[in-house]
C-alpha cells in the first residue's frame, strides 16, 4: 500500500514521549525514499507515454492521467511525512541546544543521525556565539526573577571561584546567596541546589 511506510515513520515519532527522541530510523527512512523514487520513475514513464500518444487517444489518456496523478500525490504525501519526521526531531534537538551544554550525553547522541549531530553542533555554536556577543546567558530563565540573588546549597566541593560580583569559596554543604546567573551554571551541573526561602 502506497504511503504506509511513511505513515509508520510519523507514528513512530508521535508515539514517543514529548521532548524525547527515539533512535533515528535510517532503515524505514531509506525505504520511504526508495518508494518516492519508484513513484517518480512511474510518473515520468506515464508522462512520456501521454506525450507520445497525443491528445487523440482519449481512453488511454484518462487512465494514464489518473495513474500519473496517483503517483504524484503519493510522492507529495511521502515527502510531507518525511519532512514532518525530520522537522519534529529538529525541534527536539533545538530544545536540547537550550538546555544542554555544547556536548550531548552519549545516550542521546547515539540516537541521532550524522546530519542531526551536525545540526546540534551548529545550533549550539550559534547560540553560544550570540550569547557571548551580548554577554548574556539567555538559557538561564524564561521568567524574569523577582530577585537577582538566590539562596543555594553547595552539593559537591567546588573550591574558590571568581563570580561576577564576588570571590567565593564554594565548599561542600555551604549555604550562600549568589547571583542567579552565577548559580545556574552549577545548578544545571548538579553541583548546587536552589533553596526555597
From TrEMBL:
Alphabetical UniProt keywords: DNA replication, Nucleus
Main localization, broad class: nucleus
Any one Gene Ontology BP term: DNA strand elongation involved in mitotic DNA replication
Ranges of residues in domain DNA replication complex GINS protein PSF1 C-terminal: 146-195
SUPFAM superfamilies membership: GINS helical bundle-like
All residue ranges annotated as the GINS subunit domain in the record: 45-134
PANTHER family per record: DNA REPLICATION COMPLEX GINS PROTEIN PSF1, PARTNER OF SLD5
Name of the protein this chain belongs to: Uncharacterized protein
Amino acid at each position: 500500500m502506497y504511503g504506509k511506510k511513511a505513515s509508520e515513520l510519523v507514528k513512530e515519532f508521535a508515539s514517543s514521549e514529548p521532548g524525547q527522541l527515539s533512535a533515528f530510523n535510517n532503515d524505514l527512512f531509506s525505504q520511504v525514499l526508495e518508494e518516492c523514487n519508484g513513484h517518480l520513475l512511474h510518473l515520468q514513464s506515464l508522462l512520456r507515454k501521454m506525450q507520445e500518444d497525443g491528445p487523440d487517444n482519449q481512453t488511454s489518456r484518462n487512465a494514464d492521467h489518473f495513474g500519473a496523478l496517483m503517483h504524484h500525490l503519493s510522492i507529495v504525501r511521502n515527502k510531507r511525512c518525511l519532512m514532518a519526521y525530520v522537522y519534529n526531531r529538529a525541534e527536539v534537538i533545538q530544545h536540547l541546544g537550550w538546555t544542554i551544554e555544547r556536548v550531548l550525553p552519549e545516550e542521546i547522541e547515539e540516537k541521532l543521525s550524522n546530519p542531526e549531530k551536525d545540526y546540534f553542533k551548529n545550533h549550539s555554536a550559534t547560540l553560544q556565539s550570540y550569547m557571548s556577543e551580548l554577554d548574556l546567558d539567555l538559557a538561564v530563565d524564561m521568567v524574569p526573577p523577582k530577585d537577582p540573588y538566590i539562596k543555594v546549597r553547595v552539593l559537591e566541593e567546588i573550591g574558590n571561584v571568581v563570580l561576577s560580583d564576588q570571590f567565593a569559596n564554594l565548599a561542600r554543604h555551604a549555604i550562600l546567596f549568589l547571583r542567579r546567573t552565577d548559580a545556574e551554571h552549577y545548578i544545571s551541573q548538579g553541583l548546587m541546589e536552589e533553596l526555597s526561602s
